[in-house]
Amino acid sequence: MTSPRSRIAEAVDGIGLSGNQREEILRRLETCLDALVRAAAAERDERIEALSTRVRQAEEQLAQAQKMEAIGRLTGGIAHDFNNLLTGILGYSSLLKTFLPEGGRGYEAAAYIERSARRASELTRQLLAYSRRETPRFRPVDLGKVTGEAIEILSRSVNKNIAIHTDFHHPQEPVTGDAGTLVRALLNLGVNASDAMPGGGHLTFSTAPFVSDGEVYLNDVLVPEGRYVSICVADTGSGIPEEIRDEVFAPFFTTKAPGEGTGLGLSMVYSCVRTHGGFVRLVSSVGVGTTFQILLPAMEESGDADAPREAETEVSRGTETVLVIDDEEIPLNLLCDVLRSLGYTTLPADSGEEGIEILRYAPEKVDLVIVDRIMAGMDGIETLARLRAIRPTLRTILCSGTSEAERTPSAAVPHGFDDFLQKPYERETLARKVRSVLDA
User: Fold this and answer.
1) DSSP code per residue over 278-301
2) How far, in Å, CA of 114 to CA of 116, rounded?
3) Using an 8 Å Cβ cutoff, are 387 and 393 in contact?
4) Where in the sequence is the domain holding 417, given as residue range(s)?
5) Is the pLDDT of residue 273 over 80?
6) pLDDT band at 371; cut points 50, 70, 90
7) 361 falls within a domain
C-alpha cells in the first residue's frame, strides 16, 4: 500500500516544478501532514481518555449503587430485629398501664416508656424507608412539626458552634406528604449546611406561604399557578461555586473527599420534593452562604395535620380462641398476654409447623390465626397456605416488622390475609384489629 507521503510526492512530480520548488512544496506538505497526524492522534487520545473516564465513572457508580443496596438490605434486617424488641417494650408498657391507677407514678413511668418506644419505632420506620423497604404514606403534614423534628435531631449531631434558628409563619398551612420522608430531606440539607460551616455559623429554617400566578420560575422550572408552602434552609457557609450549581442534584455528585460522602443526599432531596409535587431552588454565593428553598403544594382543604388519635373510651374485647404463631419469644408471649387480658383464649406456637399441628388437632376450635411474616424455616406465607389446606375459611392476620405491614389491608389479598398488624404495636391497636377481623 502506497504511503501518504509517496502519494504526495507523485502528485507534486506531476505538476512539473523545478527541483527547489518541488522540495519546498514537499517540505511544507509534509509539515502539514505531520501536524494533521499529531492532531488526529491527540483527538484519538482525548476520546479514549474521555471514554475511559466515563467507563470508570460508570463502574464507580455501579459499585456505589451495589454498596447502597447491600446497606439497604442490612438496614432492613436490623430494623426488623429492632422492631421485634420494640414490640415487647411498647406492648408490655401499654399492658402495664392497664394494671396501674391512672395518674400515679407507676402509670406515668409506663406511659413514658411507651412514648419512648413509639419514638424509637419512628426511627425504625426511617431505617426501613432508607433501605427502600417502606412505601411512603401520604397524609396531611404540618411542615412546622416536620421541621421541628429535623431540628431536634440536628441539634444533637451538628457542631456545637453552629447556631440553629427558626422563623415559622403562623398559622401554618398543611401539605399532603410523607412526614418521615420530608424529615429526612431536611436532615440532608441540614447536614450539608453543617459541613459547609466547619468553623461555625448560623443555620436557619423558615416557613412561609407562597402564591404562584403561573409565571414564577424556580431555577428555570415553571411553578404552576396555586398556593404553596415555602420552607427554606439557609446557612452562612462557604457557598457553592457557580460552575457546579447545575450538578449538585445529580446522583453521585459530591465535592467531598472519597469516603466522606455518597453524593446521594441532594439527589434524595430533589427526588423527595418532586415526589410531593413540589419544587426546589438553590441560591448561593461563595463566601456568603447557601439557601435551599422548597415549595410544596398547600392542601386544598385545610385539616388537622398529624392529628393525634383520640383515645378510645373502651378497648375492644372478646372470648374467641386465637392461634398465635411467632418464632420470637418476646412477640409470641406479648401477643398471648395482651389477648388474654382482653378475654381471648390463646394457643401459642413457636413455629409454622407447630401451628399447623395445633390446627390439625382442633380445626374448628380456632377462630383466628395471627402469624409472623418472617420466621426461620416455614415463613408466614407458607404457613398460611398449609393452614388454609386444613381449614379454607380460616381468618388470619399477618404480623410483621417490615414494609409488608405498612401497606393497606388490600395489599394482603394476594396472600389471603384479612389484615396486617405492624410491629411494634400498642394494646389498643391489637384489640381493634382482632375485633375487626373477627366481626367482618
Assistant:
1) -EEEEEEETTTEEEEEEEEEBPSS
2) 5
3) no
4) 321-439
5) yes
6) very high
7) yes
